[in-house]
Amino acid sequence: MFETILAADLGSSQTRLATKNEILTEESRAALDPEDTCRVLEVGDRARRLLNTAEAFPVRNGAIADAALAAVMLRRFALKLIKRRPLFGASLTIAAPLAAKPIERAAALETGRGAGFRRVRIVDSLLAGAEGAGLDITGHGARMLADIGRDSVKTAVFASGGIIAESFARFGSSAADRGIRTFLAEEHRLLVGARTAERLKKSLGAPLIRVNGRDASTGLPVSRDIR
């Protein structure tokens, strides 16, 4: 009997779950029953589309904030990927930065076990990222890798097959989104939502961007060209 091995990267924005031949990417979110928040109605991309629910995000600031909810989310993702019950015959490898606090690493292990995996282990996320990106870290020359997430930024410098320097900061691309919204409100009197800010962030290289939002003074819908 062959053992099923899965690898997981639980981020604040997205969760990636992979087997040897397939990768599943879903939003790291859950939709809860507003009258009974212990009841998880949906997880991942489908959770965003449900109306009249309580939103929950089990991963925040680059770490698992709610291990019980993260376990439910991870279990449903895993069952979608391998289409088999139960999961106790499968093993899970979770990527986490070496700079993570012991309590954060413990939460990652608790999440995997709570999801039903027989064996759970943690590997350094930057080392795994370097290998996945095809980065040659065995030579004497230094190589640098940066992992920019929604709520955290992780960087490492590799040489001679190991990490010689590493940093972990609890801010990420969401900080840029907030900066864009603040800039538009203060400089252009234009109020935009989180999704618009994220879209603008991806279009910052354009010389002229048409932005739809609300006038900060009147609250009425307005479109403006931003240079």
Supply database-style keywords.
about 230 residues, alpha+beta, Nucleotidyltransferase, domain 5, Actin, Chain A, domain 4, 3 domains, 5-stranded mixed beta sheet, 3-stranded antiparallel beta sheet, 6 helices, 16 strands, about 35% strand
Care to describe what's here?
It is a single chain. With 227 residues, the chain is of the alpha+beta class. It folds into 3 domains: 4-128, ATPase, nucleotide binding domain (Nucleotidyltransferase, domain 5, 2-Layer Sandwich), CATH 3.30.420.40; 134-169, no CATH class; 173-226, ATPase, substrate binding domain, subdomain 4 (Actin, Chain A, domain 4, Alpha-Beta Complex), CATH 3.90.640. 30% of the residues lie in helices and 37% in strands. The chain is built from 6 helices and 16 strands. The strands form 5 sheets. The chain has a 5-stranded mixed sheet. α2 packs across α3 (102-115) and α5 crosses α6. The mean pLDDT is 88.
What best-fitting shape do the alpha-carbon axes yield?
globular
Counted by DSSP, the helix tally is 6
Q: Which secondary-structure class do the elements indicate?
A: alpha+beta
Radius of gyration (CA) equals 20 Å
Residue fraction in strands? 35-45%
> Could you tell me the mean pLDDT?
88
The rounded distance between the terminal residues' Cα atoms is 61 Å
Biggest sheet details: 5 strands, mixed
